[in-house]
Design goal:
Blueprint lengths: L1 H23 L6 H15 L11 H11 L2 H4 L4 H18 L7 H15 L7 H16 L2 H7 L3 H14 L7 H16 L6 H10 L10 H12 L1 H4 L2 H8 L9 H9 L11 H13 L13 H19 L1
Helix pairs in contact: 1-2, 1-3, 2-5, 5-6, 5-7, 6-9, 7-10, 8-10, 9-11, 9-12, 10-12, 14-15, 16-17
InterPro entries: ARM-type_fold (IPR016024), Pds5 (IPR039776)
Main location: nucleus
GO biological process, one term: cell division
């Protein structure tokens, strides 16, 4: 029974891929027809297991050849490119952990995926659904590892910016938040060298003078920073010092890193609970006198946070 399903899947995928290849080679193909076939290919690819047996390769090859063509990758219609990106996310999943295309082509594919992920901020149901699909596949197959192997530093920085900008919208589910957190955390943890641009992006998102305190953007950036404390505990303080920044302007995770950073092991460090208590006092009195355009909402929120901090401090005594 399973064998017959696999045979049918191979046949259907080969037929859909062949049709897509023919449509892609024609400049007069109507966009709706092209989108319809792309959806068929996407749906069929989603049924293919990761690293399938060799008998599936001929059927996959036809779709892979069509999808990587300039006619589809550089199509003038945004919906077509988003659909191609969705199909490519399935191709990447199927071939993982190996890359399905050459390095230069993979970089173009990741660029296309990032463009498609921009649809997470769109009200277009089709585009949003495709973007969710791409994000899910990127999380599952650890696509960030491929990006690191290809040294896509600029694309990784763009991805961090996109995630932190997109998550500001409260309409996103907790699943989207967690997937972004997972990708960003894994990217930092698996990096041999962490570019200063990534540090700057994260710090800007937890700066009281730049970002509304405890927005979803702030929360995402701070959780990633906290997850990667061991990787960043020496880099963040050095970055803050080199830029002559004030660590008091940042979240507790950053401020604690900076306060505890020293190369002298004889220096007494402030415990996290003590620092959190003192930091709560700072938040409580961080009011409209600040130059930040967003500070008008801090006072009441700071007071609530401060109350929670007191309870936390009491529990750790």
């Amino acid at each position: 029974m399973a064998s017959s399903r696999v045979k049918k899947l191979k046949r259907d995928l080969y037929d859909a891929g062949t049709k897509l290849l023919a449509l892609a080679s024609s400049a007069t193909t109507p966009v709706p027809e092209l989108l319809n076939v792309l959806d068929q290919v996407d749906g069929l690819l989603s049924k293919v297991e990761q690293r399938p047996f060799g008998s599936m390769e001929p059927a996959l090859y036809v779709s892979m050849k069509a999808l990587i063509s300039d006619q589809l990758m550089k199509h003038s219609d945004i919906d077509v490119k988003v659909s191609v990106a969705s199909c490519m996310s399935e191709i990447t999943r199927i071939s993982a952990p190996n890359a399905p295309y050459h390095d230069a082509q993979m970089k173009e594919i990741f660029q296309l995926k990032l463009m498609a992920l921009g649809k997470l901020s769109s009200e277009d149901p089709r585009g949003y659904s495709k973007a969710l699909h791409i994000l899910d596949n990127m999380t599952r197959v650890r696509a960030c590892l491929l990006m690191l192997d290809l040294e896509c530093d600029d694309l990784i920085a763009d991805m961090f910016k996109l995630f932190l900008s997109t998550i500001r919208n409260d309409n996103h589910s907790s699943v989207v938040f967690e997937q972004m957190e997972s990708i960003m955390t894994r990217t930092i943890k698996e990096s041999d060298e962490i570019p200063e641009e990534l540090l700057d992006i994260l710090l800007t998102s937890v700066n009281m003078r730049e970002e509304r305190f405890w927005s979803r953007t702030w929360m995402l950036a701070e959780i990633v920073l906290r997850n990667c404390t061991s990787e960043l505990q020496h880099l963040i303080p050095k970055f803050v010092r080199s830029r002559e920044l004030n660590y008091d302007d940042y979240c507790t995770t950053v401020a604690t890193m900076c306060l505890n950073f020293t190369e002298d092991e004889n220096v007494v460090r402030v415990s996290p609970s003590t620092f959190t208590f003192l930091y709560g006092i700072k938040l409580c009195f961080f009011t409209q006198n600040s130059s930040s355009k967003n500070v008008d909402t801090y006072n009441f929120r700071g007071l609530r946070i401060f109350v929670l901090v007191i309870f936390f401090f009491a529990e750790t005594m």
